[in-house]
Design a protein that fits this description.
Blueprint: H1 2-43, H2 45-56, H3 60-88, H4 90-107, H5 114-128, H6 131-140, H7 145-156, H8 158-174, H9 184-206, H10 219-235, H11 243-247, H12 250-270, H13 273-280, H14 285-312, H15 317-337, H16 341-368, H17 371-403, H18 407-431, H19 438-442
C-alpha cells in the first residue's frame, strides 16, 4: 500500500513538473521581455535628462514634475485598465498597451517645451497603465499558490535586466548626438521605444488568454491546474467579493500604502541617480551606466532568492520590512558618502533592496487575496504605489531646485523608507488570520486524486 501511495505521489510530482515547466518556458520569457522594455521606456528619461535638460533648459523642478506626470496618469487609469483586461482578455489588452506606449515613447523625440514634456509623459503613463498588475494577475491565474512567488520573481527579474540593458545601451545611444541632425537623447527614445511595438504584435499571436485555451497543455495538465487553483482559493481564507470590496480590503490598502512610500522614494532617487552620480561624484555618463549594470545584475540575483524565500514564508511582510530598512541605509550612504565609493555602494544597495521590497509586497498580495478580487486588488495597491511614485519625483525636484543640491531629498527619503518599514511590518496584522498553513500548502492532490 505504501508503495502504491509513493507511485501516486511520484506521478503527481511528474505531472506538476511537466505543467509548470511548459508554462514557465511558454509565457515567462515573453512576458519578461515585455516588462523589460516597459522599465526601459519609463526609465530611459533618467539618462536622457543628463543632456536633454541642458539642451532644452529644463530645471530640476520641471524635470521632476515631468517624471511625476507619468505616474499620475498611470495611477488614474490603472484600475480601469485592469478591469478592461478582464473584459477583453490578456492577449488583446496587453498587446494594445505595448503598441500604444511604444508609439508614445518614440514621440518623445518631438519634445521642445516643458508642457510638451509633461503631456507626453502623461500619455506614456496612460498608455502603460495596468500592464504590470495585469501581468501579475495573469501569471497568478496560471501558477498555483506554492509556485507563484518563484514565477512572479522570474518575470519581475526583467526589471533588473532592464537596468543592465539601460545602463549598457544608454551611453552609446547618447553618443549618437548629431547623427541625422538629432540629439543623442532623441536617438535614445527612438531606438528604445520601437521594441514595445514589435513585442505588442507578438503578443497577439503567442499569448493564450487562459490555460484552458492553451493547445500546448495536455488535458491531464489542465485538470491538475484546476485542482491546484481550487486548493489555492480555499487556502486564502477569503470569501468571493465584488470590485468595491476588493478595492477596500485592509491588506490592499496597507500594502498599497507601503508600496506608495517605497515607490515615492524609489522613483525620486532612481530617476535622478545618473545625474546625481555625475554631479555629486563627478562621474562620466559611462561610469554611471556601469553602476546601473552592476545594480541590475545584483537586483536579478536578489529577486530570484526572494521569490524562493517568500514562497517558504507564511508571512513575507517581515522580509519586506527588513528590505526597506536596508534601502533607507543605502540612501544615507549616498548622502554621507560624498565623492567616495561609499556613495556608489549606497546607490547599489538602495536600488537592490528597494526593487526587491516592491516584488515581495506584490507576491504577498497574490497569496492573500481571493482570485475573484485579485485583479482589482493588485491594481488598487499598485495604483496607490503609483500615486507615491508621482509625488516623490515632484517633491524631490522642488527640494533640489530650492536648495541647489540633493542632500535634503536624500535625508527625507531615508526617513520615509524607515517609516515604510513599519507599515510593511503591519501587513502581518491584516494577514495573520489568513496565513496559509505550511501543512496545507504542502498537501496537494496528485494526478490520481479527485
Amino acid at each position: 500500500m505504501c508503495r502504491g501511495f509513493s507511485q501516486m505521489a511520484d506521478a503527481g510530482t511528474r505531472l506538476e513538473r511537466r505543467a509548470i515547466t511548459k508554462i514557465s518556458w511558454r509565457l515567462l520569457p515573453l512576458l519578461g521581455a515585455c516588462y523589460l522594455v516597459a522599465i526601459i521606456d519609463r526609465g530611459n528619461v533618467s539618462f536622457a535628462s543628463v543632456s536633454m535638460n541642458a539642451e532644452l533648459k529644463f530645471s530640476e523642478a520641471v524635470y521632476g514634475l515631468g517624471v511625476a506626470c507619468f505616474f499620475i496618469s498611470y495611477a488614474l487609469f490603472e484600475v480601469p485598465s485592469n478591469l478592461l483586461l478582464n473584459r477583453f482578455g490578456a492577449r488583446r489588452w496587453l498587446a494594445r498597451i505595448m503598441v500604444t506606449w511604444g508609439i508614445v515613447s518614440m514621440a518623445m523625440v518631438f519634445v521642445r517645451t516643458p508642457w510638451e514634456f509633461y503631456g507626453l509623459r502623461f500619455l506614456l503613463g496612460m498608455a502603460e497603465a495596468g500592464f504590470f498588475p495585469g501581468v501579475t494577475h495573469y501569471v497568478s491565474e496560471w501558477m498555483p499558490a506554492h509556485q507563484r512567488g518563484r514565477a512572479i520573481s522570474r518575470f519581475y527579474i526583467a526589471s533588473a535586466l532592464a537596468l543592465v540593458a539601460l545602463g549598457a545601451s544608454a551611453p552609446p545611444l547618447l553618443g549618437l548626438h548629431g547623427l541625422a541632425g538629432l540629439s543623442g537623447w532623441q536617438w535614445l527614445f527612438i531606438v528604445q521605444g520601437l521594441p514595445a511595438v514589435l513585442l505588442g504584435v507578438a503578443l497577439l499571436f503567442a499569448l493564450p488568454d487562459r490555460y484552458s485555451e492553451a493547445a500546448w497543455l495536455e488535458p491531464e495538465e489542465k485538470a491538475w491546474l484546476d485542482r491546484e487553483m481550487a486548493l489555492g482559493t480555499a487556502a486564502t481564507g477569503a470569501a468571493p467579493i465584488g470590485i468595491g470590496g476588493a478595492l477596500l480590503q485592509p491588506i490592499v490598502l496597507v500594502a498599497g500604502t507601503a508600496l506608495a512610500l517605497n515607490f515615492a522614494v524609489g522613483s525620486a532617487i532612481g530617476f535622478s541617480l545618473p545625474k546625481l552620480m555625475t554631479d555629486q561624484m563627478h562621474w562620466s555618463i559611462a561610469q554611471a551606466g556601469k553602476m546601473t549594470v552592476v545594480s541590475g545584475v545584483l537586483v536579478g540575483v536578489a529577486m530570484l532568492i526572494a521569490g524562493v524565500v517568500s514562497d517558504r514564508m507564511a508571512r513575507p511582510s517581515r522580509l519586506v520590512a527588513i528590505l526597506m530598512l536596508v534601502t533607507a541605509a543605502g540612501g544615507m550612504m549616498i548622502l554621507f558618502g560624498g565623492t567616495t565609493m561609499i556613495a556608489a555602494a549606497g546607490g547599489v544597495i538602495f536600488t537592490v533592496a528597494g526593487q526587491v521590497a516592491g516584488l515581495v509586497i506584490l507576491i504577498t498580495l497574490t497569496r492573500f487575496i481571493h482570485p475573484t478580487a485579485r485583479a482589482a486588488g493588485i491594481a488598487m495597491s499598485n495604483t496607490l504605489g503609483q500615486i507615491g511614485a508621482a509625488i516623490g519625483p515632484a517633491l524631490w525636484g522642488l527640494a533640489a531646485s530650492a536648495t541647489g543640491s540633493f542632500s535634503l531629498g536624500l535625508l527625507i527619503a531615508s526617513v520615509v523608507m524607515a517609516f515604510a518599514a513599519l507599515i510593511a511590518w503591519s501587513i502581518e496584522l491584516v494577514t495573520a488570520r489568513k496565513a496559509p498553513s505550511p501543512v496545507l500548502s504542502s498537501i496537494r492532490p496528485t494526478a490520481h486524486q479527485h
